[in-house]
Amino acid sequence: MYISDVSGHRSAAESVERALRQVSPQAEVLSINAFNYTNPLSEKIVNKLYMGVIQKMPGIWEYLYDNPRIVRKIERFKKSVHKFNSPKLKKLFDSFRPDVVACAQAFPCGMVADYKKARGLKLPLVAILTDYIPHAYWIYDNVDYYVVPSMEVAGHLAAKGVPEEKIKPFGIPFDPKFNEPVDKRLVFKKTGLDDSLPTVLIMGGGHGLGPINRIVDSLEKVKKDFQEVIVAGINKRLYKSLKNKLKQCRKRVLLLGYVNNIHELMSISDLIITKPGGVTTAEALVKNLPMVIVRPIPGQEASNTDFLVKKKAALKIDEIGGIGRVVSDLLDCPDKLSQLRSSAAAISKPRASLDIAGLILDI
After folding, report:
1. Are 178 and 184 in contact, with CB atoms under 8 Å apart?
2. Domain 8-176+351-362 maps to which CATH number in 3.30.70, 1.20.1300, 3.30.1490, 3.40.50?
3. pTM here?
């Protein structure tokens, strides 16, 4: 279960589904947007509000995110919502009859946990965390296992009272195809990129968020010759503005919308400038791709950034105007790039999706 059709949560859920089918082709798997299933109208409103807040008022999100006071205040409301959704959840479970439920986002996890408690069910429930912070909205007695990105997150969960035997530090799930070898020459050929030039990949997640236009402006001022691949996701406004901007750019730039070959683009890139979403982070780590993170939003992105910087797998840049200098310095210093790659490799979890699939099948 996940929420939002364009999100890391959905990517994580579908990655586990692919791994399950790979490990056990006969397994019946249903991947579902739980928020849309139970509250289709509310989902649209909440998603729109969320996107507006994180883009225009990130300070509000910082205040709300994992705030113990907010958690306590909405507890009664949350239980009311779960109770209201209970009949639809019963209909779903009566129809599909799952042996295990796995949730890649806290909302459906809490909904299923309360459903289990209210009905006295023994249905196994697996919580799959996709960020490097175990916020309070994940904590329920009726969760059987927590899959977390790292031992550090496992320690944080244990400190919140979760029994250690319930915690599995398998990593953040990603599409198993990221582990497969890529023919770089073929990718360069089909994208029309120059395999003799350094390649910088620029992404803002599926929604194409972040100051991508300003990043391009900063990179355009760099004298060093390199090429850029920009993935705008579903952000049509960003795509249109970049298309107009690129007419004036001196550098070679490949502009893309929402694509399904990120594994190929990461394979041919020398570094990535990106939002530190959990799944994107897991994919970049397994590709040993150096990360440059610009102005992460408060909450989960800030926590992900802190983890990556601490592990020396990423650089954080607060001043957008300086991104060009940082990229130029990295491309001019192979040793720095090599160090970032080594650090990424050290904390990557290549078997994350397969290990999670194994856990689910063994319960």
Report:
1. no
2. 3.40.50
3. 0.91
